[in-house]
Design goal:
Elements: H1 12-36, E1 51-53, E2 55-60, H2 65-69, E3 76-79, E4 83-86, H3 89-92, E5 107-110, E6 113-115, H4 121-128, H5 130-137, E7 141-148, H6 154-158, H7 167-181, E8 186-198, E9 201-204, E10 214-218, E11 222-226, E12 231-232, H8 236-249, E13 252-253, E14 261-262, E15 265-276, E16 285-294, H9 301-304, H10 309-337, H11 349-353, H12 355-359, E17 363-370, H13 377-390, E18 394-396
Parallel strand pairs: 2-6, 2-17, 7-16, 7-17
Antiparallel strand pairs: 1-18, 3-4, 4-5, 8-9, 8-12, 8-15, 10-11, 13-14, 15-16
Helix pairs in contact: 5-7, 7-8
């Protein structure tokens, strides 16, 4: 929603003040409604359950400095840690006070978790990802990926900063805590790989090279990347060092929507092999794999002001995310109709790598990141629709 489309004769400062008051009044009323109508709890199962729903969480970031300077206002509210309410910005700026009389344009979505802008990194990790770690040590596969428009906070959620680390580091820290507690009974081998998909080309982020890597389909391992380096690690600090080193090698450029926009999808994989010490010479080795994925943001050229190579990057990002959306839609349709129609995983490198995470042998968590500002209404709405669709995907754990 562009502010230029509003009547220039309106006193913007008074309108914004009124809209803030209306938002507060609106949220209070919605809060009463949500308590009256209890949100239905969705059984997300456990790692040991054969079939599970994809767990979907939504994270709202605070207004950025630029958004505050542009005098944007918040149009998203989180209720009961499960309900996301998206309000129409034109209604909030309606000088006649139509809000409260006609709320037909307000949209509500219920998710497994919904986090407001004050929720910290640790709380998000403990709610969405911590329970997966135990299963990794037992040989299960798990995937956590962040989705959202450019500038919505995906990289912060997944990678964080050195002083306030995100989901990737906190997961690995928990993994090493669990391993230390079981060292007397098991021998563990932990390896890490870190790659990016840039313009449909796969690159290693740990061993820097101009080489483009290829995808291979292995009968036992499933989809894997030929030539991708795997580094053995002994502590979460080792991994943190690799993470920030790899992220520096990742393709990032400034756009009109984000000064440090990720121009590629980044995938961190942790492979854990466990062998029982009491089993003697011949022993079964359980192998668990955890994939942590920071997707590049969907974007509109009109908002990012991209030209030339940036526009080409944006087109490739949107194309791969469209492929991901098509796979999600096909999976949901198959599940609803009980059919086995073709799933177009081969439409992009991203969907081929995510094949197991979406419909195969993996427990999957999606964290959808959204922006609160009125200028991001369309992007936020699209992200919420995308995430709401993904709730219906089921994966089979083996």
């Amino acid at each position: 929603i562009k502010t230029e489309s509003y009547d220039p004769s309106l006193n913007m400062e008074n309108d914004l003040l009124d809209s803030h008051n209306l938002v507060q009044e609106y949220s209070t009323d919605l809060g009463k409604k949500s308590k009256a109508n209890t949100i239905e709890e969705r059984d997300v199962g456990s790692l040991e359950t054969a079939t599970n729903n994809m767990i979907v969480a939504v994270r709202l970031r605070p207004l950025s400095k630029k958004e505050i300077e542009r005098e944007e206002f918040e149009i998203v509210r989180i209720m009961d840690r499960k309900l996301v309410i998206l309000m129409d910005p034109l209604e909030l700026l309606n000088a006649k006070g139509a809000l409260g009389k006609n709320r037909s344009k307000e949209k509500q979505y219920a998710f497994d978790y919904a986090f407001d802008s004050e929720t910290g990194q640790t709380e998000i990790f403990e709610s969405t990802t911590k329970f997966l770690v135990e299963g990794i040590l037992e040989g299960y596969n798990a995937t956590v990926f962040a989705y959202g428009a450019t500038g919505a906070g995906k990289t912060y959620t997944m990678l964080g900063t050195e002083s306030n680390p995100g989901n990737m580091f906190l997961t690995l820290k928990e993994l090493f805590v669990k391993i230390k507690a079981q060292r007397n009974n098991y021998n563990y081998d932990i390896r890490v790989s870190f790659l990016e998909i840039y313009n449909e080309m796969i690159r290693d982020l740990i061993v820097v090279s101009e080489d483009v890597l290829d995808l291979r389909e292995d009968k036992d391992k499933g989809i894997c990347v030929a030539g991708l380096s795997e580094v053995e690690v002994e502590s979460p600090e080792d991994v943190m060092e690799l993470l920030f080193f790899g992220n520096q090698n990742r393709t990032q450029e400034a756009t009109g929507a984000n000064e440090t926009s990720s121009r590629s999808h980044a995938i961190l994989q942790i492979i854990v092999e466990a062998k029982d010490k009491a089993s003697g010479v011949v022993a079964e080795v359980s192998v668990g794999k955890l994939s942590l994925i920071d997707l590049a943001g969907s974007e509109r050229a009109a908002k990012t002001n991209n030209r030339g190579i940036r526009m080409l990057e944006g087109a490739n990002i949107n194309r791969s995310l469209l492929s991901l959306g098509n796979c999600i839609n096909a999976l949901v349709d198959n599940m609803k109709k009980g059919s086995k129609n073709h799933i177009p995983y081969r439409d992009s490198k991203l969907t081929r790598l995510l094949k197991d995470s979406l419909g195969g042998n993996s427990r999957t968590v999606m964290i959808a990141n959204i922006s609160p500002g009125n200028d991001s209404y369309e992007d936020t709405h699209n992200t919420l629709k995308y995430a709401n669709r993904a709730k219906n995907i089921k994966t089979s754990i083996k």
